[in-house]
């Protein structure tokens, strides 16, 4: 069964619209896809409508999802949610609060970038964005397009990354709040890309302990860009902390590095988070 529980659309910082990502997932022969945009569920309905129009002989099922930004010990941590009621009151309230925080942070980032001499062209491009859910990647993409930096990595190293001149400390919700909102909506909560936070082994285990104590359900064990050894280690950590395993590409758009559904097989020792979801092969 081909399943991908982590991808982004233009509802947050993805390159493809919900309809386009459904078309791509269908081409990649994915059976189950979760749309997990940052702090929003705005792209899910359009994706479900597009998937419903696909041939019955090769169906694609859209799993409602979200990726919620959280604060933890001075780090920004991302919590994935799946199978939630996207209209549940507690979840909707939390996402609205996150939206306000994100908008305020974007305004502060823009001010810092302007003071740092980033081109008006780049800042105007972000201001004109159709996205109502601006992220740092929107600024990075705009700076690349305007020629202020050569690539996204350079934008983060010089301006947007933590400790640099345009970084703004986010005031996100806590892990406990994110997990509670997801589960109150009938969903499952997973810790996204655990190695991306560049934590020491000691701190990673501390994060897993706190996430598990908050009632978290799963750890993202399999991702497309990953060494086999790292995947096995994450599978073992998931078991150690009594967490199920998830698999997701974190796809943001076509590139040579990431693809929907690619290289997402879980180790044999893992218990898939979707095992209790009554999914068919």
From TrEMBL:
InterPro entries documented for this protein: PHP_dom, PHP_domain, Pol/His_phosphatase_N, Pol/histidinol_Pase-like
Write down the superkingdom of origin: Bacteria
Q: For this protein, what is any one GO molecular function term? A: 5'-3' RNA exonuclease activity
Return any one Pfam family short name. Answer: PHP
**Domain Polymerase/histidinol phosphatase N-terminal: where?**
3-72
Where in this chain does the entry annotate a coiled-coil region? Answer: none
The protein depicted here goes by the name Phosphatase
């Amino acid at each position: 069964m081909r399943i991908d529980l982590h991808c982004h659309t233009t509802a947050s910082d993805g390159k493809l619209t919900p309809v386009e990502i459904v078309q791509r997932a269908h081409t990649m022969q994915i059976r189950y896809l979760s749309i997990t945009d940052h702090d929003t569920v705005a792209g899910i309905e359009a994706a479900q409508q597009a998937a419903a129009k696909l041939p019955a002989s090769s169906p694609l099922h859209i799993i409602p999802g979200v990726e919620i930004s959280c604060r933890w010990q001075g780090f920004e941590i991302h919590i994935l949610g799946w199978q939630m009621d996207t209209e549940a009151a507690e979840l909707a309230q939390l996402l609205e609060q996150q939206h306000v925080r994100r908008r305020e942070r974007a305004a502060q980032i823009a001010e810092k970038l302007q003071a740092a001499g980033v081109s008006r062209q780049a800042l105007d491009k972000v201001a004109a964005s159709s996205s109502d859910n601006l992220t740092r990647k929107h600024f990075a993409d705009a700076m690349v397009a305007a020629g202020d930096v050569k690539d996204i990595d350079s934008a983060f190293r010089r301006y947007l990354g933590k400790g640099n001149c345009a970084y703004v400390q986010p005031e996100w919700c806590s892990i406990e709040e994110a997990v509670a909102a997801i589960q109150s909506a009938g969903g499952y909560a997973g810790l996204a890309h655990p190695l991306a936070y560049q934590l020491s082994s000691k701190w990673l285990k501390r994060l897993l302990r706190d996430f598990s104590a908050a009632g978290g359900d799963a750890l993202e064990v399999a991702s497309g860009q990953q060494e086999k050894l790292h995947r096995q280690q994450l599978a073992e950590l998931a078991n150690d902390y009594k967490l199920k395993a998830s698999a997701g590409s974190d796809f943001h758009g076509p590139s040579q590095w990431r693809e929907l559904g690619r290289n997402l097989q879980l180790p044999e020792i893992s218990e898939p988070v979707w095992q209790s979801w009554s999914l068919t092969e």
